[in-house]
Design a protein that fits this description.
Elements lengths: L1 E3 L8 E2 L14 E2 L6 E9 L3 E8 L5 E8 L6 H22 L8 E7 L2 E7 L3 E3 H5 L6 H20 L2 E2 L8 E4 L5 E3 L6 E2 L20 H4 L5 H17 L4 E2 L5 E2 L3 E2 L4 E2 L1 H7 L6 H10 L11 H8 L4 H5 L34 E10 L5 E17 L2 E8 L2 E5 L14 E5 L2 E4 L5 H8 L27 H15 L3 E2 L3 H9 L61 E8 L18 E8 L15 E5 L7 E2 L3 E3 L1
Parallel strand pairs: 25-28
Antiparallel strand pairs: 1-2, 1-3, 4-5, 5-6, 6-8, 7-8, 9-11, 10-13, 11-12, 14-15, 16-17, 18-19, 19-20, 20-23, 21-22, 23-29, 24-29, 25-26, 26-27
Helix pairs in contact: 3-5, 3-8
Length: 623
């Protein structure tokens, strides 16, 4: 697909063979939208947008979805309303996608010419609508749909958002982990106490929406109703259809008597449903809102209840496995290693520390020292491990600072550890990759930006774990990835400002990218390197003597991803329970990410098997 480069073109997408733009007539074409997105093909078209599959060249050609605002409405007021909904969708995607692994993340939002665009994460998988063409949905599968989607809806509703378009086409089963992902928040509505009583723009899909939603008074229970309809349609494989004259026929619904006939239809198809699931589906489908489930949690409680046996005399009820959240009293400190705790002789090294003002000017430069030991990796390659003292600190950000996933701020106690002075270098990676295999084979040359003293990047979380296992076998010391709490403690080094340098960073002191909008004063004159640099090349450290903690490469932590710190441990240990173990925590930002994502408290994640594969790491060992 060719992209018209006329900045005022309202629809720059053209077929490959076009000599002139079909919209504006210009002949100047390029391959990228906004010099970043390579648009491959059209995915679909809705009421006021077109969706394209694309590649993000700034994220190593990672797959993404470009959504273009194309309102199919007449009149200035209607177009303005559609534009407002489109912009609101971008804000909702940012807030929701950044804080839940089963909602696509927003990657960009911008205006070009007369069009608005939002770019979001591309989910590799099939919609339930597509699955239905080749799959029979048993009761067990319906229960799994509920157990996957209900926690997502509970999260969405807790943010005072109503999706308003739950249907099989808007639920994708992700290939990587088979989890369900909720997409298309284009019709979602932000609600307040006052807006609940005010009639809203009517957005719904016929055959899935409740009567109150069709009247413009959607509420949380409206999404639950649509989920119930989705379940009975999957179970019966019966979808509404439209004839050539626009008339809709729905064998499951008696519109005259306002009655769902799914039980009768299921009986004719010999579809078996337990009394428990039948009760739950019937209550989801109640026409009167007050008779329906009010929250997703209520549905989950009934779904996992053992009381239905006594209520209905059932002999078998399929039970779901529900994760148990350990109480704080069940947490135990990491046991002392039974392996050798002998360390090579510690030495002292000196380093510079600088403090910046809000304009990025150095206002203080001091000299300090710290203890370290050197690990011989062979072939003249050494690993320097810095000793940092134990202590307590406030982890995360206060309300009004940072992102929602950085809260609540909480006190954490950290034990003394040794941590890499620098991120693991390519020379160190290569030396360890030549050691005997433990679980995985390691590519000795994975990095895109080559250099023995540059940090290794393009390695997965599992590969980083293999590195630690081989190092442990060689040395007899228990090398590992840091916990997320340990990493932030090491980065802050006693500071409480956004960066250990102070309130800002500059390109003279850290290797990070620029942001879409100016957040820090230096960004008007930043030289963007667009690649990694040799470790320690900025020649300044934090108060612990650690280099390159801000920017350079994203650094893996041991923890699975959690959406916030509610229930987080306070002893500095890895937060193992619950969370998404297919996604692991990243810290520190990188050469290609904006300064705001390089803050001490900033968090991100990546798929543990690699994902975008732009990550490095540093190792720790307990004293």
């Amino acid at each position: 697909m060719r992209i018209c480069q006329n900045p005022n073109c309202s629809n720059p997408f053209n077929a490959d063979g076009n000599r002139f733009c079909t919209t504006c007539g210009h002949s100047n074409f390029g391959d990228l939208l906004r010099n970043r997105f390579r648009v491959i093909r059209l995915l679909g078209e809705g009421g006021f947008s077109r969706t394209y599959y694309a590649e993000d060249v700034d994220r190593l050609d990672g797959s993404c979805v470009v959504k273009q605002f194309v309102p199919q409405v007449q009149g200035t007021a209607a177009r303005a309303k559609a534009a407002q909904l489109f912009k609101e969708e971008a804000f909702r995607l940012y807030e929701l996608g950044e804080n839940h692994p089963s909602i696509p993340r927003l990657l960009a939002y911008f205006e070009q010419g007369a069009s608005l665009y939002l770019v979001q994460e591309f989910i590799e998988g099939d919609t339930l609508h597509k699955e239905l063409q080749n799959t029979t949905y048993t009761e067990a599968k319906i229960r799994h749909v509920l157990i996957d989607i209900l926690p997502i809806l509970d999260f969405v509703h807790s943010r005072n958002v109503i999706h308003r378009d739950i249907k099989p086409e808007n639920i994708i089963r992700r290939y990587s982990d088979k989890k369900l992902v909720l997409i298309d928040f284009g019709g979602a509505k932000q609600i307040t106490q006052t807006s609940l009583a005010r009639q809203a723009t009517v957005i719904y899909t016929v055959g899935y929406a409740s009567s109150e939603q069709m009247a413009g008074f959607a509420c949380h229970a409206s999404d639950l109703y649509s989920l119930g309809v989705t379940c009975i349609r999957l179970l019966t494989q019966c979808l509404p259809y439209q004839d050539a004259y626009g008339n809709i026929t729905d064998p499951l619904y008696d519109a005259i008597n306002a009655h769902w006939k799914w039980r009768e239809y299921a009986k004719t198809k010999n579809i078996q449903v337990s009394e428990q699931l039948g009760y739950i589906l019937d209550k989801l489908l109640k026409h009167v809102v007050r008779e329906r489930y009010q929250t997703a949690v209520e549905v989950l409680q009934d779904l996992n209840s053992n009381n239905f046996k006594s209520l209905f005399g059932m002999t078998t009820v399929p039970q779901l496995e529900t994760p148990q959240i350990p109480s704080q009293t069940r947490l135990t400190p990491r046991s002392k290693s039974t392996e050798s705790n002998f360390y090579p002789e510690f030495h002292i090294f000196d380093f510079d520390i600088v403090t910046l003002d809000t304009q990025g000017r150095i206002i203080e430069r001091t000299r300090a020292n710290a203890r370290f030991f050197t690990e011989d990796l062979g072939s003249g390659v050494f690993l320097e491990m810095v000793s940092i003292p134990g202590g307590s600190y406030m982890m995360g950000s206060l309300d009004g600072e940072g992102d929602a996933d950085e809260r609540p701020q909480h006190n954490v106690q950290i034990e003394p550890i040794c941590i890499g002075k620098y991120p693991v270098t390519q020379a160190q990676w290569r030396a360890v990759s030549n050691l005997p295999k433990i679980n995985l084979s390691l590519n000795p040359h994975p990095s895109k930006f080559k250099g023995a003293n540059r940090p290794v990047e393009n390695v997965s979380w599992h590969e980083a774990q293999e590195f630690c296992a081989r190092l442990q076998q060689k040395t007899g010391r228990k090398y590992r990835l840091p916990s997320e709490a340990e990493w932030e403690y090491a980065c802050r080094a006693g500071t409480t400002t956004p960066f250990h340098f102070g309130d800002t960073i500059t390109p003279d002191l850290a290797n990070c990218g620029n942001s879409e909008t100016r957040i820090f004063e230096f960004e008007t004159k930043t030289k963007i390197r667009k690649e990694t640099t040799p470790v320690g090349s900025f020649e300044v450290a934090n108060s612990f003597g650690l280099y390159d903690m801000h920017g350079q490469v994203w650094e893996w932590c041991a923890d699975p991803w959690h959406n916030n710190y509610v229930g987080a441990p306070t002893d500095g240990s890895v937060w193992e329970w619950q969370g998404d173990k297919n996604r692991r925590v990243l810290r520190g930002g990188s050469w290609s990410f904006s300064p705001v994502l390089c803050r001490s408290a900033s968090r991100s994640w990546n798929e543990s098997d690699g994902g975008l594969r732009i990550c490095g790491f540093r190792v720790v060992v307990s004293l």
